[in-house]
Amino acid sequence: VRLAAELGYTPNAIAQSLQQRHSDTIGLVVPDVADPFWGEVVKGIEHVLGDTNKALFLSASHHDATRQLKVIELFHRRRVDGIIIADAQLRTDQLARLTQLGAPVVFLNQQRDLQSEQVRSISIDNRLGGRLAA
Question: String of b and e for 43-72 (b: at least 16 CB within 10 Å)?
Fold first, then answer.
């Protein structure tokens, strides 16, 4: 360890992820990176990740289901440990592809029939929020 520090050695994260079978990365797909709402969502996710040494990969779908699936597949090829999909635009046939990928998936603000050990959803109770605000 001392010699590695003296030589300025930095471990290769890609090689480590292959050996350890996890990449310490989370993929996040939002519809629009310029929308202030999704900016706050990104900030919240980064806050939760905190000191976990996990990196957040961010990409925008631009409200396009085909692009959204391409981004998800790219994240999968990058071996992210999990994928968060905000405002999912995916069709039923595209949703089936998620279960084939193997990475855990969480939908934000979506209620989906497709729930399993690897696909979950988190949604907002707008009625309760409205009552609390009133």
Answer: eebeeeeeeeebeebbbbbeeeeebbbebb
Give the C-alpha separation, 109 to 44, whole Å: 14
Which of 65, 83, 64, 86 is CA-nearest to residue 74? 83
| Beta strands, E only, 41-81 | 55-60
The two tokens of residue 127 are 């009625």
The answer to whether the CB of 65 falls within 8 A of the CB of 95 is: no
Q: Which residue has the tokens 């696909």?
A: 119
pLDDT for 112 beyond 60: no
The whole-model pTM stands at: 0.77
